[in-house]
Each structure stands twice: as structure tokens, then as C-alpha cells.
Amino acid sequence: MIEMPMISSSLPRAMTSCATWARVFVLAALALSCAACGDAPTVLTAFRTEEQAQTHCPKDIVVWLDPQSGLYYLKGHGSYGRSNAGRYACRTEADAAGMHGMPN
Length: 104
What we know:
With 104 residues, the protein is α+β, with helices and mostly antiparallel strands. 38% of the residues lie in helices and 15% in strands. It has 3 helices and 4 strands; from the N terminus they run H-H-E-E-E-H-E. Strands 3-1-2-4 form a 4-stranded mixed β-sheet. It starts with 9 loop residues before the first helix and ends with a strand.
């Protein structure tokens, strides 16, 4: 009877381990790519003039954005149209982008 040499048991484990890690990396890549293709952030279009914003969203309320604070102001508020860094935008888009309105 001819004896067959034994293959080290570490070889199959190493191959299994590599295959397992490869699967983990593939699954992680798929999970990250699916997360990236989920809900895209809302685009907030800002305008230099109130008229431009109103043309962009004729059925919406135009607000004044303060990007440094993440707030917006309605017409009639003391800060409406006053900050140098601010811009006009549509209220619906500002809400969807996570901006917060200040009461008059």
C-alpha cells in the first residue's frame, strides 16, 4: 500500500482565511457603494438677488440664508438681506438642506 503524503492542515486554513477576507472586502465595498448611491443630499441653490430666487421658485417663499449659522430669515426679520455672506434661496430647498428658520 502506498502512503500519500499529508498536506499541512495550515494550507487550507490560510486559503480559507484569504477567501474570507476577500469576501469581507467585497461586501464592505458593496455596502459603501450602496450607501453612496442612497439619498443624495439636497442641492441648495443660493442667489445674489431676491428676484433671482423668486424666479427660481415662483410658488415658494424666498428666505435669506446665513450659511455660517445654518439659519434662514423670512422677509420682515431684522437680519433679512443684511449679512455679507448671506444669500437668497427658496424656503423649501433651505428646509430640505437642513437649514433652520428664525421666527420674525
